[in-house]
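Q: For a teaching session next week I want to show students how multiple molecules come together into a single three-dimensional assembly. I've collected the sequence lines for a complex. Could you give me the predicted C-alpha cells for the whole thing so I can convert them for display?
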Amino acid sequence: MAASIEKSYDLRNIISNNRLVGLWRMLTGYRGTFILANLSLGVSALAKTSTYLLLRYFVDNYFSESTHRIALPIIAAGFVLLAVVEGGFAFLSGRLAAFTAESVTRRLRNYLFDHIQHLSFTYHSKTQTGELIQRSTSDVDALRRFFSEQSVGAGRILFLFLVNFAALLYINVKLALLSIIVIPFVLITSLWFFKKISAAYENYQEQEATLSTTLQENLTGVRVVKAFARQTYEMDKFEKDNWEKFLRGKRLLKMHAFFWPLSDTLCNLQILSGYLIGALMAINNEISFGSYLAYAGLIVWIIFPLRNLGRLIVQMSTGMVSYTRVLEIIKQDREPLDEGDYLPENGIKGHLKFEEVGFTYQEGNIALENISFECLPGQVVALLGSTGSGKTTLVNLLPRFYDYTAGRILLDGVEINRYPRRILRREIGIVEQEPFLFSRSIAENITYGVGRNVTQDEIERAAKAAAIHDSIIKFEKGYHTLVGEKGVTLSGGQKQRVAIARTLLKNPRILILDDSTSAVDTETEAEIRDALRNLMKDRTTFIIAHRVQSIMDADLILVMDEGKIIQSGRHDELIQIPGVYQEIFNMQTRIEVELEKEIASVS
Amino acid sequence: MSADFFEEEEFESKFDGKVFRRILSLTRPHLRWVIGFLICILIVSGLDSVFTYLGKSILDDGIIPGNRAALVNILILYLALSVVQSIAVFGFIYLAGVLGERIRYDLRRKMFNHLQQLSLAYYSRTPVGWIMSRVTSDSDRVADLVTWGMLDSTWALMNILTAMFFMLVINWRLALIVLAILPVLLFVAIQFRRRILGEYRNVRKFNSKITGAYNENITGVRVVKALGREPENMREFGALTSDMYRASYRAAWLSALFLPVVQIISSFALGAVVWYGGLQALYAGMTIGGIQAFVSYITFMMWPIQDLARVFAEIQQAIASAERMFSLIDAVPGVVDRPDAEDPGTIFGDIEFDQVSFAYEDEKPVISDLSFKVNKGETIALVGPTGGGKTTIVNLLCRFYEPKEGQIRINGRDYTRLTLRAIQSRVGIVLQTPHLFSGTIRENIRYGRLDASDQEIEEAARLVGAHEFIQKYEKGYDEEVGEGGNLLSVGQKQLISLARAVLAQPEIFIMDEATSSVDTLTEAMIQKGMQALMDRCTSFVIAHRLSTIKKADRILVIEDGRLQEAGSHKELLAKRGKYYQLYTQQFRSQMETSLEAMLVKSEVIGANE
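A: Of course. Below is the structure for the complete assembly, covering every listed component.
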C-alpha cells in the first residue's frame, strides 16, 4: 500500500499547548482516512437501525391485513443486504482506523528514534535510559490506541446514539424523549467509576512492577541468598509483595463487581419503563406493533453502549497524558550535525591548537579552565590526571560533543566550531576503555559506522592489525558470532580490540584513546600495545594515559588537576623538574627496586 | 532441556489431557469459589435467554391481546429477574476475579518458594528472563484460563443451549434453520481467532525488537555519535518499524473483519427466518412476538460465538504456558540435604579437599584430583589464571555444587553429611560484583544477620570503613540504595556487602576480590575491612591484589583445575616457579596500570611534605 512511502512531516509542528490541537496535527496526512473511518461507522450504524425499521415494515405488513406488500424473498434479502452493509462498513472503518493509527505511529516511532539519536550529550547525560524507552514505547502505544481504538470507539458510540435516536424520534417523539432520561446518570456514574477503576488499576500495576523487581533481584542474587541461607527470609519478602498484589487485585475487582451490575440495573430500569410506555402506546394504537418491535430493539443500542463511553473518555485522557510525555522529548533541540561554514577541501591534517579554552556546565560547574597547548599532525598527546581532573571533558570538546565556553580551539588554523560536527566526527576516532558493542555479529561491529561497503578481506586485515583475529576465529561462528546476550560475552580487552579494528577501518585523522586495560593478562596486554601502535601511526592522538609506556613515547604530556594543566612537556623534560610527574616516576622506580630487593631476599 | 527451549517466548503445543487436568486441579483448593461463579454465570446466561422470551410475551400476551394487567405482570417479573441477574453478575465478577487473583498468587508463591530450593546448577543453565516470564505472564495466562476462560465458555455454551431451547419451544422448524448455521459460525470464528492470535504474536515479536533497538541506540549513543552512524541506524530502524507496521496493520484489520463476518453469516439465518416465518405467519400462525424473539436470539448469538472461539484459540497457548510452568515446579534441586544430615553447631575447623574432581553440566572437567588441607583460622589466597578453577573451588566450598568424586571434609566430617543450612548460614561471602537488594543501606547490611540491632549494624559498617560515606547521606543508614544498589558506586556496594558479611559473623569467609577499578581511598578501606574479617575466621580469597596475596598465610596456585604450587609468599618466590612468574608479571603490570592511583597518592604525599 501507499504506506511504504514515508510521509515527510516534521513532527515538531505538533507542538501545541492545546493537546487536542496537537493530536489533530499528529494526524496530518491521514486526516482524510481518519474522518472516513468515523463516517463509515455512521453508515454502519445507519444500516443497523434500518434493519429494525425493515423489521417494523415486515411485521406491520405481514401480520395484518395489508395490500401493498413487498415480496418475502426481497425482505429476506434486505436483511442480508443490510447486514452486509453494516458489517462491510464496520470492517472498512476498522481497516481505515488501523491504517491511520499504524501509519501515524510508525511516523512517530521513526521520528522519535531519529530525534533521540540527534539530541545533545547534555540531554542524554541527564536523562535516564529507561525513561526515554518508556516514552518511546508505552506512551507511543497509548497514542496508537488513542487513534485506533478509543477515539473511533467513542465515535461509534456517538453515531449509534445519534442514528438510533433519530429513528426513535421518527417512530414517536414522546417515546423517544422519555427513553433517554437515564443517560446523564449512566454517563456520570461510568465516568466516576472508571476514574476510580483506572487509579486502582495503576495501583495494581505498580505492585506488579514491585513484585517483578523483588523476583528479579532474588534471581540475580541467588548466590547471595544461598550464601547467607536466606531462603526463608526471601520467601517472606516475596510473600508480602505477592499478597499485596492479591489485595490490590481484589480491590480492583470489587470495583468492577459493583460497577457493572449497578449500571446494568440503571439501564434496565430505563429500558423496562420504555417497554411499559411503548407497550401501552401500542395497546392504545398510538404506535403500530411493528414500531414497538423496532423500538424494543433500538433502545438497547442507545442505552448500553453509553456505559462504555465513560471508560473510553477516561482512557482517552490517559492517552493525552502520553501525548504530553512524548512531546517533552520532541520539544528538545537537536544537535545540528551539518551546521558550520567551513568545509576543508583536502581533508583534515590534524594540527590542533588550544587557546585558553574553558568549559563550564550549564549548572555553573567549571570543568576546564585556561587550557592552552599545541600539537602538530601525527603527534601524541598524553593526558594524565585523577578521575574528575577534566581529561575526558577535554577530549569531548574535539568531536564537539560539548562546545567550549571560553577561549578557542583551532584545527588546521580554523576555529573548530566552524566545522560541521558530521565532518569532525568522521575524522575523529574514539577507542574507549570498555567500548560499547552492539548486539550484532562481530563483523558488523567492526564495520559499524565505517559508512561504506567493506569486504571480508578488509575486515580480517583490520582484525589482524588489532590483534583480535585469532580470538575471533576460535569462536564457532567466527566473524558471524553474535555479541552480547544472545551470543558470546567478550572480555574488556577483546571489546577494546574490536573497537580498535573498527577505528582502523574508519581511518580517522585524529584519535582519542583510553588506554587503560582492566584485568587483562600480560600476554594480551602486549598484543593490545602492538594493536595500538598500529592504530596510532600517522594520526594525531590523544591518550588518556594509564600506562607508563604510552606516556614515555608521547610528544606532549599534560598533567591535569581540577580542570587545569598543572604540568606539561615531554617525559625527559618533566622528569628533570621537581613536581607531581617527577614524584610519580620516582615512586615507580622505587617500586621496581623494591621488587628486585624482595626477590633477592628470598633466593 | 535444549537451547531452543528457552528461545521462543510463546509457543503452542498439542492439546495434552494430562496437563489440562493438572491445570484444572489448581482450582481444587478453591472448589467452592468455582462452583459459586459457575452457578452465578449459569443464572446470568439462562436469564439472558429468558428475557428475550419475556420480550416475546410482552408482545404476544400483553400488547396484541391488549391485556394491560398481563403486561404489568410480565414487566414486574422482568424487573425482579433483572435484579436477580444483577446480583449474579456481581457474584461472578467478584468470585471469578478474586479466584483468578488467588490462583495467580498461589502459582507465584509455589514457583518462588520452589526456586529458593533449586541449586545453582539450575540457575546457571536457565536464563533469568525465562524464569521471570514463567512466574509472571505464564501464571497470569493459566489463571485466566481456569477463571475467565472457564466462565466465558460456560456462559457461551449455556447461552446457546438455552436460546436453542426457547427457539425450539417457539417454533421448532425455524429453530432447525438456526441450528444448521451454528456449526458454520463456530468453525469460521475459531479459524479467525487462531489467525488473529498468530498475527498478534508477530506484533509482539516486532515490538520487543523495537524496544531493543531503542535501548541499544540510547545506551550506545556515544558510539553512534562518534561514528556518525545516525543515517544508517535510522534506515535500519525504519525497516523495523515498517515490519511492525505491516504486522500490526494486518492484525488490526483481521480483527476488524471478524465480527462483521460472523454477523453477515448469521444474517442469512435472519433472512431465512423472516422468509420462512413470514410464510408461516400467513398460514401457520407465527406470532409477532415469536419473530421478535428469533431476531433477538440470532443477533445476540454472535457474542457467545465470539467468546467460545476466543477461549478455544487461547486454550492452546495457556496449555503451553502451563507446561513450562510445571517444568519449573517439577525441576529437582541438585544439591539437597541427606536424610541423615545434621547440624554440628559449628563449622569452624580444619577444611580438607581430598582428591576432589568436578565437572559442570558440559562434562568438561574443571577440577581434577584436587587435594589440600586448610587449618582452622588460616587465610588462603587462591591465585591463577582466569578459568583455572578458582571460582569452582569457592562454589564447592559453599556447597553450591558437590564434588563428583572425592570428599570435602570440615572438621574431619564429609560435608555432605551436614545440612546445607549448617554450612551456608556460617559462610560469609563477598562477590566480585556485589549484589544488593532494593531497600535501605541498613536493610542490606542486616541481611547478614536478621536479628542484629542497629548498633551492631553500625559497628559492622565502622569495622569495614563504610560508616563514613553512609553518614554523609542525608538519611544515613536509611538511604535507599535503588534497584540492585544502582544508586551507589561499585566501591560503596562492595563496602556494604563486606559489612553484611562481617555482621553475619561467619566461620568461613570467602571473598572474590574485585578487579574493577575502585578509587584509592575506597580501595584502602576495603582492604582494612577485609583484614578485620579475616582475622576472625578461616578465609579464602580469590586474590588479584598483591597486598592481599602477600598477607595470606598460604597461597594456592590453581591452574587447569589442579593445584600447581602451595606455600607462603616467600617460599613460593624462592621456588622460582609458576608463582614467581605470576607475581613478577602482576607486579609490573599493576604498577604500570595504576598510574592514576599513583597520582592521587603523590598528591597526598605532596600535601604532607
